[in-house]
Amino acid sequence: MHVLELVNQWVWGAPLLILLVGTGIWLTCRLGLLQVIRLPLALRLIFKAKNEGEGDVSSFGALATALAATVGTGNIVGVATAIQIGGPGALLWMWIAAFFGMATKYAEGVLAVKFRTMDDKGQVSGGPMYYIERGLGSKFKPLAVFFAISGVLVALFGIGTFPQVNAIVSSTQSSWGVPAIVTAGIMTVVTALVTLGGIKSISQVSTKVVPVMAIIYIVASFVVLITFADQIPHAVALVFEGAFNGAAAGGGFLGATVMMAIRNGVARGVFSNESGLGSAPIAAAAAKTKWPAEQGLVSMTGTFFDTIIICTLTGLTLIVTGVWQGAERGAMMTQAAFDAAIPYGSIILTICLMLFAFTTILGWNYYGERCITYLFGVKSILPYRIVFILLIAFGAFIKLEAIWLLADIVNGLMALPNLIALLGLSGVVVAETHRYLQHMKSQKLG
């Protein structure tokens, strides 16, 4: 355990975080602040993309699948942890990481569609393993294989299963006294029904559940902010002051340095929106579109919704209610913020946590499936799905901190080959962007 903790700290240390944000800064410069200038177009395309060309699901379906995996417990627990350790200033560094992360997510979406292919069942396959091998060249195949192996391990033993299952089981047990075995049984059956249908089934569920869970959480957060409206100016001031001056100790809070604010804000922001990790482009590749840049723009909005909107609302509710200085930790801290303004606020948060965690399971099931298909072909899909479902069944009763740490490490290692590819193929991203914008311009002239 001690060795794994040391390795985890090394993997998620300053070099990787600098590389993640640095790649976003480089792409932002090369694309001319595309995430600002083209954001209105990107938001329109979510519902108005023509969905022409090869693909398995609509552009919105691909985005919903990616958001299903991305919007998870990190938006509730991760933000609370970042502010608890790094102070309110961590929220500003989360915004900065997300701002540059939008350019990274755009590039991932472009390359996913540009270099996607078909598997033996006629289903679209894409993602970093394909744009590494087909974009950078076959000599980089070991890097693509390394990414795919990491993706399977994270899906089966990390983000995709155990943490999410435990989040749901512990929530239902503490809030409603539901036995773990009952929750595990229901989750296993529902997961099997959805995931055995593949990407189309996952996409159909995601397009219905993701907007609902986001709306419930956003409305509840706004109720808290309206209740404590007089504290919002002070909360915003704390965010900016803490980002550059650190935060003073108070209550159960130990006090945070500027370095703690930066590290926790950037790290938790990246964990939450997954920009640069290489997971979201696997879903983006399935979109029905003939323009890589079009899906890149739609994918980019995922980081905007995840961090700029949902994480911001979580952070502000924690600060305006003052619970960030209390003794609560993680989800309990966010629960205390909801309870401070909403009757049965903890129940609403439990429902949100359950939905967030369940959709993350669905999204990561698909990511792992595409990774194992790249490694072993379509014959490996059914065995993979069976193993995944069994892990969901047993996940409620497993307390394997070592496996979680290992998955955390592999999750970080996923980012390395992906970031190398993004930097190496940035010229392709720029060229595809110009091609799409010229097309848009000619349509307007026409």
UniProtKB/TrEMBL annotation:
Keywords: Cell membrane, Membrane, Symport, Transmembrane, Transmembrane helix, Transport. Its main location: membrane. This is Sodium:alanine symporter. PANTHER family: AGSS FAMILY TRANSPORTER, SODIUM-ALANINE, TRANSCRIPTIONAL REGULATOR, LRP FAMILY. GO terms for molecular function: amino acid:sodium symporter activity. It is a multi-pass membrane protein. GO terms for cellular component: plasma membrane. Belongs to the alanine or glycine:cation symporter (AGCS) (TC 2.A.25) family. The chain crosses the membrane at residues 12-39, 60-86, 92-113, 143-164, 176-197, 209-229, 235-262, 304-324, 344-367, 387-407, 413-431. InterPro entries: Na/Ala_symport. It is found in: Cell membrane. NCBIfam families: agcS (TIGR00835).
